[in-house]
Amino acid sequence: MTTTLPTLAAEPATTRPALVKRRGGVRGRNRRWVILFLAPWAVGMAVFFVYPLLATVYFSFTNYNGLDTADFVGLRNFVYLFTGDPVVRTAAYNTLWLVVVLTVLRVAFGLGVASVLARVTTGNSLLRTLCYLPSLVPPVAATLTFVFVFNPGTGPVNSVLGWFGIDGPLWFNDPSLSKPALTLLTLWGSGEIMIIILAAILDVPKDLYEAAQLDGAGPVMQFRKITLPTIAPVLLFGVVNSVIFALQYFTQAIVAGSVASGSADMVGNSQIMGYPNNSTLTFPVWLYQQGFRAYHMGYASAMAVVLFIVSFAFTAILIRQLRAGDSEEARS
Amino acid sequence: MRTRPGRSRLRFRSALIVTTAGVLAAACTAGGGGASGPAAAPGADQAVTVQVWSNFSDRELGIVKEALDKYHGKHTNITIDNQGSQDDDKITQSIRSGNPPDVAISFTTDNIGQFASSGAWQDLKPYIERDKYDLDDIPKAVLDYTEFNGNRVALPMLADVYGLYYNKDLLTAAGLSAPPKTTAELLDYAKKLTVKNPDGSIQVAGFLPQMGFYAFKPQIVGTMFNAQWVDKDGKSSLGKDQGWKDMFTWQKELVDFYGWDNLQKFTAGLGQEYSADNGFHAGKVAMAIDGEYRTAFLADQTPGLNYGTATLPTSKPENHGGGYTTGTIIGIPKGAKNPGAAWDLIKYLTSDTDALVGLANGLHNVPSTKTSLSSPDLKLGDNFKPFLDAFANKNLTSNPASTIGDQYLKIVSDFGVSWQTGTVPDLGKGLADLDKQIDDAKALGK
């Protein structure tokens, strides 16, 4: 019997282009749908990210007050930023301080709390909820509460310290303690990092720990050799997240400064920004002051460009470090 | 007919590009433009809605509404859209986006320099000349803070005047019968009125000299020493002016009397400036500098407090009687849709004695014309009188308008904080450095 089954190979050559064309049409229609569905995101991305980014770079080379036309001034804003503005150095120092201290403590605190919570077997849901809850408190409300709690004259913290004969410090009213006080506030509200790290810890395969136990590894060794390497990508995320968080530190700093200064309802008043003694004046706060209070929008744009470059560099370096670590691990 | 796929794709991409460009253009374009000459007020048969933005809220917005309603009663064709809680940032944004209100009311004079130099607020001079608006009825210090380099873009709608508040009971207990008139007396009174606890901490402070705390701000305290901000060329003159040196020296003496840490701990325990726990309300501070509006807060929050008011003490007797003034300003933003009607309303709110007196009585501010000061309808109480007297005095002063907003005030305030904590070794050099900082900051915007 001769076969009559149709096969693609046996089809006349003339039918192939039609099939291809039909497939191309379907693909084209699909592509249009994809573009259509992506359009809102693309427009949002263009309007709220790409355009502002490009505009910021452009304005950083101009004398622009936000009301009038922008005049090109070359590198003048950057020269003033690096050589002429005495306050920006204080602001940069404060932000750098927060980047270093907040990043280390936030990740370490999140890791520590998550490690403890991962081992708790009774009432763990309640404990996890309690530890996470502070991160849901709006930053302004949390800051107001902290400044009240740490008020040197009337706050409960110094009252409790007084019971033990300790003369409580000035906390938010002391230039040397205002940033540590802000750090405490941030750690209290670092539930997001904690919950992400906790999820990563709980995701580590149990059989790795069982095998390590059989090999005689104690809890510390297991943490160092199993937990930490396995959750390293999540920790890196935590570090990058914390670095960017610290670089953009604004709300808590400006609210704490204004409330501690005694003028809580005058947040827009430049004279109280950074109280006490500019110790809470972060780079973004000074950027805001320059752009919206002093009408130096061009200069503020130059500050924003520098902040963006620094954020980008921090992130790139950290990701490269992780990749280098991964490659080394893969080779070994 | 079916369209060819290639052409369809091309059209789709073109449409996408055009749409995106349109959205970007809409987002980036600042519309509107200023009027070149004085616009005529609308005719009686022409219905117009005038949008008024201010930062008033709650009860105070209601007081403003009463004044606006009276205006509407006289001009029934002009409807007022009264929007509160609109600060300078929002007004600026609306100007930038080309959709500003017809009338903008600002609580601060800090931004007048930028509003004038950038053209963000319209020049009122053509309107003033056309309608023969009487500027002579406004004190010189008030005229100064409502214009910049001769460019009048605003008029005062009520004023704030700062004076000395004193607790009569505490003064009597200390054997003091009258408030201080000179800064030397103020220093002496402050020491006599201070009560310390056995451990050395402050129980009652005679007078708080911390820079930036409550109303102890350089622009207010500086007037007590006749301190000058700029020289005749418009350059910062703090380093060359004896008044600033006198002020900071005087301030440091009082800070050292209390002890910095002692003072800081005491003020940290005081309530917020505009709360009922304010140190003066609570009887923990015997004397304080504050605006005339404090009389309303005291009447509302601490009606039982036995207090008095006086004009600010000065370092030289010949400068006494005035004090510091600032206030609410009103103008027409660039791009306002009904500038003619806006000016008519502004003229009413800033020069009509009944309107000003009604607003002053309701908001507990000083009415901003000389005529309204003597109105028999002013019902603000005895403690308000020193503020009215100061407003009419030739020694009334204000701080100069600047293109850098209140940045120069922050620079001086920051210096004051460093100075009072003892970290500035050379006052003269420190003040000269401030001049450079301020002039450099101004130059950045040129």
From TrEMBL, chain A:
<feature type="transmembrane region" description="Helical">
    <location>
        <begin position="96"/>
        <end position="118"/>
    </location>
</feature>
<dbReference type="GO" id="GO:0005886">
    <property type="term" value="C:plasma membrane"/>
</dbReference>
<feature type="transmembrane region" description="Helical">
    <location>
        <begin position="226"/>
        <end position="250"/>
    </location>
</feature>
<dbReference type="InterPro" id="IPR035277">
    <property type="entry name" value="MalF_N"/>
</dbReference>
<dbReference type="GO" id="GO:0055085">
    <property type="term" value="P:transmembrane transport"/>
</dbReference>
<keyword id="KW-0813">Transport</keyword>
<comment type="similarity">
    <text>Belongs to the binding-protein-dependent transport system permease family.</text>
</comment>
<feature type="transmembrane region" description="Helical">
    <location>
        <begin position="181"/>
        <end position="205"/>
    </location>
</feature>
<keyword id="KW-1003">Cell membrane</keyword>
<keyword id="KW-0472">Membrane</keyword>
<keyword id="KW-1133">Transmembrane helix</keyword>
<feature type="transmembrane region" description="Helical">
    <location>
        <begin position="130"/>
        <end position="150"/>
    </location>
</feature>
<protein>
    <submittedName>
        <fullName>Carbohydrate ABC transporter membrane protein 1 (CUT1 family)</fullName>
    </submittedName>
</protein>
<keyword id="KW-0812">Transmembrane</keyword>
<dbReference type="InterPro" id="IPR051393">
    <property type="entry name" value="ABC_transporter_permease"/>
</dbReference>
<feature type="transmembrane region" description="Helical">
    <location>
        <begin position="297"/>
        <end position="319"/>
    </location>
</feature>
<feature type="transmembrane region" description="Helical">
    <location>
        <begin position="33"/>
        <end position="54"/>
    </location>
</feature>
<feature type="domain" description="ABC transmembrane type-1">
    <location>
        <begin position="92"/>
        <end position="318"/>
    </location>
</feature>
<dbReference type="InterPro" id="IPR000515">
    <property type="entry name" value="MetI-like"/>
</dbReference>
<dbReference type="Pfam" id="PF00528">
    <property type="entry name" value="BPD_transp_1"/>
</dbReference>
<dbReference type="InterPro" id="IPR035906">
    <property type="entry name" value="MetI-like_sf"/>
</dbReference>
TrEMBL record, chain B:
<keyword id="KW-0813">Transport</keyword>
<comment type="similarity">
    <text>Belongs to the bacterial solute-binding protein 1 family.</text>
</comment>
<dbReference type="InterPro" id="IPR006059">
    <property type="entry name" value="SBP"/>
</dbReference>
<feature type="signal peptide">
    <location>
        <begin position="1"/>
        <end position="25"/>
    </location>
</feature>
<comment type="function">
    <text>Part of a binding-protein-dependent transport system for a sugar.</text>
</comment>
<dbReference type="GO" id="GO:0030313">
    <property type="term" value="C:cell envelope"/>
</dbReference>
<dbReference type="Pfam" id="PF01547">
    <property type="entry name" value="SBP_bac_1"/>
</dbReference>
<dbReference type="InterPro" id="IPR050490">
    <property type="entry name" value="Bact_solute-bd_prot1"/>
</dbReference>
<protein>
    <recommendedName>
        <fullName>Probable sugar-binding periplasmic protein</fullName>
    </recommendedName>
</protein>
<keyword id="KW-0732">Signal</keyword>
